[in-house]
Amino acid sequence: MKFTKMHGLGNNYILFDQVGYPENILQEQDYPELSRKISDVNFGIGSDGIILICSSEKADFKMRIFNEDGSEAKNCGNGLRCVAKFLYDNQHVTSPHFTIETLGGIVSVVVEVDNNKDVEYVTVDMGEPKLLKGMIPMEGDPFTLTVNESYTFGEEMYKLTCLSMGNPHAIMFVDNVHDVALEEIGPKIEYSSVFPERVNVGIVHVKNRKEIDYRVWERGSGITMACGTGACASVVAATINNLLDQNQAILVHLPGGNLSIRWDEQGHVWMRGEASYICHGELEHVFN
Ligand SMILES: N[C@@H](CCC[C@H](N)C(=O)O)C(=O)O
């Protein structure tokens, strides 16, 4: 099996190009195991998960993403930019504007080609955030929002703003994202019974009305260098807490680099950022 390893701001995935092939080249149950094995840094390649690029009946292409622990997620912002760059560079498309189906819905992407014909930036229309508890999903009245609401996990109380960008995010606002022990808080909240499908946990510091800092504990992968859907969720969360203004491009600083995120007046969230190659290769003896 040929693979390409790519990253968006250090959030790295092993991509398998299955375009034109049946979606299940492997048995369906083998993908979680493949992701766990490949993601292992000692016995595999080392990654935050795997991505399958498939043909689609509803959009130009389809993306599936499995986390490091083998769980399948419905969306992945950094993965979408990598997939868009890969598809364009490998001439699966001629137009830089196309659509990708995810389990969370269909998104449109635009790749930006520079003078050397090298794609550096990709913009994705990530669609509308889902704000109701029932859509995230999380416990409580399914028709209400979670805006700076207090929850106790273990001994500690946390104020969470929660929403889904296709995948669930719990966001809390802090004075300094580097002072927080995310490796302790992250798993406590991820596995809490408040979130029946688990959750990605983000900490955000609003620097001013145009810039935020953001760190993430990802469901199924732990601490990563960046999370695209999480950056979108952070901007939406800060906006509904009146800390940012809608329709303003916000610079989101993540440990792996920056993303520009805008929640427009029609309710769509736009993400612009880089996508990069790490290496290409071929897998042997995956299931030994
Ligand atoms: N890193 C991704 C999100 C990957 C999935 C996430 N861990 C989940 O399980 O929801 C991104 O860039 O959005």
UniProtKB/TrEMBL annotation:
Keyword set, alphabetical order: Amino-acid biosynthesis, Cytoplasm, Isomerase, Lysine biosynthesis
Pathway(s) served: Amino-acid biosynthesis; L-lysine biosynthesis via DAP pathway; DL-2,6-diaminopimelate from LL-2,6-diaminopimelate: step 1/1
UniProt-listed PROSITE patterns: DAP_EPIMERASE
Site (Could be important to modulate the pK values of the two catalytic cysteine residues): 169, 218
Keyword hit for Isomerase: yes
Catalytic residues in the record: 76, 227
Function: Catalyzes the stereoinversion of LL-2,6-diaminopimelate (L,L-DAP) to meso-diaminopimelate (meso-DAP), a precursor of L-lysine and an essential component of the bacterial peptidoglycan.
Domain of life: Bacteria
GO terms, biological process: lysine biosynthetic process via diaminopimelate
Pfam families named among the record's database cross-references: DAP_epimerase
GO CC, alphabetical: cytosol
UniProt GO molecular function: diaminopimelate epimerase activity
Enzyme Commission number(s) from the entry: 5.1.1.7
Annotated positions binding substrate: 11, 67, 77-78, 167, 200, 218-219, 228-229
Subunit structure: Homodimer.
The keyword 4Fe-4S is assigned to this record: no
UniProt catalytic activity: (2S,6S)-2,6-diaminopimelate = meso-2,6-diaminopimelate
Compartments where found: Cytoplasm
Family listed: Belongs to the diaminopimelate epimerase family.
InterPro entries reported for this sequence: DAP_epimerase_AS (IPR018510), DAP_epimerase_DapF (IPR001653)
Protein known as: Diaminopimelate epimerase
Gene: dapF
